[in-house]
Amino acid sequence: MKRFVGFVRKEFYHIFRDKRSLFILFGMPIAQILLFGFAITNEINNVDIAILDQANDVNSREIIQKISASKHFSIVDIIQQESSIKSIFKKGNVKAVLQFENNFSSNLIKEKQANVQILTDATDPNMANTISNYITSILKNYQQELNQTVSIDYQIVPQSRMVYNAELKSVYMFVPGVMTVILMLVSAMMTSISITREKEQGTMEILLVSPLKPFQVIVGKVFPYIFLSIINAVVIVLLSIFIFNVPVKGSLFLLGVESVLFIITSLALGILISTISATQQTAMMISLMGLMLPTILLSGFIFPISSMPLPLQVISNIIPAKWFIIIVKGIMLKGVGFGFILKETLILFAMTLVFMGFSVKKYNIRLE
Amino acid sequence: MGILVKNISKSYGKLTALSNISLDVKPSELYGLIGPDGAGKTTLFRILTTLMIADKGQATVAGYDVLKEYKSIRKSVGYMPGRFSLYQDLTVEENLNFFATIFGTTIEENYDLIKDIYVQIEPFKNRRAGKLSGGMKQKLALSCALIHKPKVLFLDEPTTGVDPVSRKEFWEMLKRLQQKGITILVSTPYMDEAALCDRIALIQGGKILEIDTPKAIVGHFPKPLYNIYATNMYGLITSMSHYEHTYSVFPFGEFVHYTDKREAMDVEEIKAYLVQQGLTNINIEATQPTIEDTFMELAK
């Protein structure tokens, strides 16, 4: 026990004396959560659009009125001829142009049909799609207002309700993802680097020629990072509750326990990486390329798994982050109990055992 | 309780690091492993400290087999690798404390053993190990290797990159440790340090050339040896290596060490030859062979 305490104390000296690792440990989580929370967002807010109103009559003006009143759009330009549409898109800041045909009102009244064209800049396809949907729904609303007095015989009225995130805030989606990425980064990368550092500096040689058992060395190296990762998890949850108002509907205790499980899974991965890499550089590259990218891309953090091609969907199953994100979303946003995330918990648990088994098998009691 | 090495061989792929090495180090002996870089010294150390497994042969350290009883060996030896291998971001005192703790002891418990060495670095105990000078680093590393009172001490090139004064102090310490009953196996590329050992093994290219006391090894030198001096050192060496009666010639400090092929050599004849080669200030006199001369002779 004394040995263990001595070892852990030494690890803390290493961590607190290395400014770089301190920054990764505590600066990065806060920076990431703030970045994802404020800057990176899927929501449409104040998108710049332009209007080409060839009709300039009652109805077209009413529609323009409605669009400019919505918080999603701001009208930055009124253009006069069709030929300027191209040049306005080329400038880049205007993302959509709304074009009303000549005699819009009279067509609407006499022919019972009037045309309006929505042109969107589809260099960002998701954005273009969303803009088009938003404008269409504004137009539909206006149409319903016009038809209030008229009765239509058959009518389907969709009543959609967004559950768990009624305001469609993207921060709700990012918090579980960022939390996963950060815990993975801190636990796996930092431990693999700290173990390979001992190899690189030759101190592993001395540790091997000592009565310390491999198990004691590993636990001693990993323990401080469990502790620090838990602090990180707490910081992230606090930031998301108090700054972004993300609710934690489920049990905080359950969230804590599941986080510790995921931290241990990541640590086991970190140990495994350290056993197969000889230098800190290699360990860092493997952690970044082999863990970070799949964690961000294939875990469902940013891109929904269900819309991936089948092979990638299969691969996503072996990514621990995927299961942890499901767990965190379940607890934080849906407020589910342990029973609903039992399967994911067991999968993470099994993965941890496998990683640890491999690490123990690969851990060298000698050099070579 | 010493070290016993029997027919040890080890190769890395095609490169043979050690071939059929045998030696025995008696309890509380100061034993030197003398040889140039790449001779296989570090490989032998790693095999004996259980860090590597030999391809062939057996070895015991302090009575324990290096393969089967590696755990017992790890408890009872001190090892100081060739490269400085302490934690550079920890202070002198923290390093020493750490190694004491992992061996289940304390600095106070074995202070008498490291006292002589540690008092010299104690004024710097709050300095980070990475900021110490070469000599102080070695003293700290030795203190750390000794803190658990090992029975056998392995020192792999402990004085490489250390100033001459610190080197001398270091060897004095080793002598004192030996008197406390610790068996010491030390490797060095410096021939002058070899004379300070009880016995030495000359090693080159993974093979042992000779094992004996430094005195006896010097006594084995087969021919009379001469110091030759001339103003132009380079001209002297090239002239002598083209001389028809030359058996061996190599630079030794400000002189050239020379042996002759013939039973009886004529000093005046060589002088005349060198004058003819355009050299000046020529001086030739007989000298005593050193371990380096013997090594060069054996390695021929």
Structure write-up:
The complex is a heterodimer of chains A (368) and B (300). Chain A has two domains: 10-40 and 169-362, no CATH class; 47-146, abc type-2 transporter like fold (3-Layer(aba) Sandwich), CATH 3.40.1710.10. Chain A is built from 14 helices and four strands. Chain A has helices at residues 2-17, 19-39, 58-69, 84-91, 104-111, 125-146, 171-200, 203-208, 214-242, 252-276, 280-297, 310-316, 320-334, 342-362, and strands at 47-53, 73-79, 96-100, 116-120. Chain A has a four-stranded mixed β-sheet, with helices on both faces. In chain A, helix 3 (58-69) links the parallel strand 1 (47-53) and strand 2. Chain B is an alpha/beta fold and 300 residues long. Chain B has two domains: 3-218, 3-Layer(aba) Sandwich (Rossmann fold), CATH 3.40.50.300; 225-298, Alpha-Beta Plaits (2-Layer Sandwich), CATH 3.30.70. Chain B contains eleven helices and 14 strands. Chain B has helices spanning 41-48, 70-76, 92-102, 111-121, 134-146, 164-179, 191-194, 214-219, 233-241, 267-276, 291-298, and strands at 3-12, 15-25, 30-34, 56-61, 64-65, 77-80, 152-156, 183-188, 199-204, 207-212, 225-229, 246-252, 255-260, 283-287. In chain B, helix 3 packs parallel to helix 5 (134-146) and helix 4 packs antiparallel against helix 5 (134-146). Chain B starts with a strand and ends with a helix. The interface between A and B is medium-sized, with 26 and 30 residues.
